[in-house]
Amino acid sequence: MRPSAIQLLNILVPVKRSVDFAVKIRVNPQQTGIDTNVKHSMNPFDEIAVEEAVRLREKLKADVKLIKAITIGPPKASDTLRTALAMGADSAIHVEVPESSASPEPLAVAKTLRAVIDKHNASAKEAGDKFDLIILGKQAIDDDLGVTGQMLAGLLGWSQATFASKVEVDVGKNEAVVTREIDGGAEEVRCRLPLVVTTDLRLNEPRYASLPNIMKAKKKPIEKLSPADLGLDYTPQLETLKVSEPPKRVGGGKVASVDELLAKLKEAGIEAA
């Protein structure tokens, strides 16, 4: 356990600029991916992560020293960071990539986060300056892969608690109790810090940033980095051959009897059991 004089929590919150949840997704004409020339906003699960970090500070007060947001994306992704800053983050890091670049794959994202964390922790003057808690969305709504948090925990060798619906941190005991969403309902896990948490929908309801906080966010610092600064290469390991829309659903029909139903199934090539 860390000495009591430096029992301070530093939280890193990765956020992603993704297609807005209200936009109807369409495949681009080249069939290489989705059409991204639409409205973007912060990934909803990441909004929940930022909200949870802010709520932890409101609850733990002086025990939380820093909340830092981080994103990987084109120059426009800085707007997503400003949203996080307006919600309550203290500062941010923008790992900037060209506008034309594809979103980095989850493993590349996890390696980027690990590099940033290692760099920050190596330069920390005392234990109370190191990142102890990483909170991020369980998945991004554009690719729905849901593996970045798990990969990051594996790379760091940290505890992990995924699909969190409740998070309680005891800084003095250097541990957290996390309630997780599982198929059978919920389970409670007790984890040692440092810890990676991924957020589920039931964890909280994100706040709207007030106008004063939006104005204050413009003055909060955003550190600019590039993949090269971290010694990383975002060359994709996977190749997308083709993306196509699912076939349009055909309306159903009514039948007057079981015999007519069986006849229709037989016409469709479906044999009754």
From TrEMBL:
Any matching Pfam family: ETF
Domain Electron transfer flavoprotein alpha/beta-subunit N-terminal residue range list: 32-234
Annotated GO CC locations: mitochondrial matrix
Compartments where located: Mitochondrion matrix
Cofactor binding remark: Binds 1 AMP per subunit. Binds 1 FAD per dimer.
SMART domains: ETF (SM00893)
CDD domains tied to this protein: ETF_beta (cd01714)
Alphabetical list of InterPro entries matching this protein: ET-Flavoprotein_bsu_CS, ETF_a/b_N, ETF_b, ETF_beta_N, Rossmann-like_a/b/a_fold
Obligatory cofactor(s): AMP; FAD
Keywords, sorted A to Z: Electron transport, Mitochondrion, Transport
Family in the record: Belongs to the ETF beta-subunit/FixA family.
Subunit structure: Heterodimer of an alpha and a beta subunit.
Protein task: The electron transfer flavoprotein serves as a specific electron acceptor for several dehydrogenases, including five acyl-CoA dehydrogenases, glutaryl-CoA and sarcosine dehydrogenase. It transfers the electrons to the main mitochondrial respiratory chain via ETF-ubiquinone oxidoreductase (ETF dehydrogenase).
Protein name: Probable electron transfer flavoprotein subunit beta
Organism: Hebeloma cylindrosporum
